[in-house]
């Protein structure tokens, strides 16, 4: 919950605050159209002593290249990598954004492959809308929704459901949007020395 440091952006609703470390080449789109100028970045810290630093590249996106509403991240090209903020350590509370992928010409489906340990604890969400019954899991309801979140690893019958299925492929032809939403949760979102998600994606030819 970012008790020591907080990075906030006035008017942004897809995250309340961020703290920790961003993965390499991590990006985020801010919805600023129609909001009062200027766009303000706020860095709030406590008196605790840390080696704090930040480096941010700001790019203004023309209106004719508008990113779909609700997309915090938007990926172009045939393949790439997606990671949660602060991976593999604690991901922040109170984020609610889409990880969106442009539908590339000549491609119809997308394959997601786990590149590192991944854990998103319920009630937080990491929804991969890849299609009903696309990946086999031991719990029928999880199989239908393709893992909105990982259930407690220590509680049978969920012990075998704590690993994100990999690889999984979409079975529809539409653009892929992964939804990531987190809460302030009394249960730490961390297990087996990792939290969050780390995957590669590749779009498949029709």
TrEMBL record:
This is CUB domain-containing protein. PANTHER family: CUB DOMAIN-CONTAINING PROTEIN, INTRAFLAGELLAR TRANSPORT PROTEIN 122 FAMILY PROTEIN-RELATED. The lineage of its organism: Eukaryota, Metazoa, Ecdysozoa, Arthropoda, Crustacea. Residues 68-116 form the CUB domain. It holds the Pfam family CUB_animal. It comes from the Eukaryota.
């Amino acid at each position: 919950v970012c008790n020591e440091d907080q990075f906030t952006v006035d008017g942004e609703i897809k995250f309340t605050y961020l703290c920790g470390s961003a993965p390499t080449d991590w990006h985020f789109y801010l919805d600023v159209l129609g909001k009062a100028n200027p766009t303000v970045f706020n860095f709030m810290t406590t008196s605790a002593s840390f080696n704090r630093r930040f480096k941010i590249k700001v790019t203004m996106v023309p209106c004719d290249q508008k990113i779909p509403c609700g997309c915090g991240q938007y990926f172009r090209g045939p393949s790439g990598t997606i990671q949660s903020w602060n991976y593999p350590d604690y991901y922040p509370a109170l984020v609610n954004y889409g990880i969106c992928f442009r539908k590339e010409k000549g491609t119809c489906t997308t394959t997601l492959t786990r590149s590192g340990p991944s854990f998103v604890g319920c009630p937080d969400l990491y929804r991969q809308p890849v299609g009903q019954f696309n990946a086999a899991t031991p719990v029928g309801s999880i199989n239908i929704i393709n893992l909105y979140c990982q259930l407690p690893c220590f509680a049978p019958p969920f012990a075998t459901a704590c690993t994100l299925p990999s690889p999984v492929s979409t079975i529809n032809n539409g653009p892929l949007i992964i939804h990531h939403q987190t809460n302030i949760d009394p249960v730490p979102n961390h297990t087996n020395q990792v939290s969050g998600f780390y995957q590669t994606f590749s779009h498949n030819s029709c």
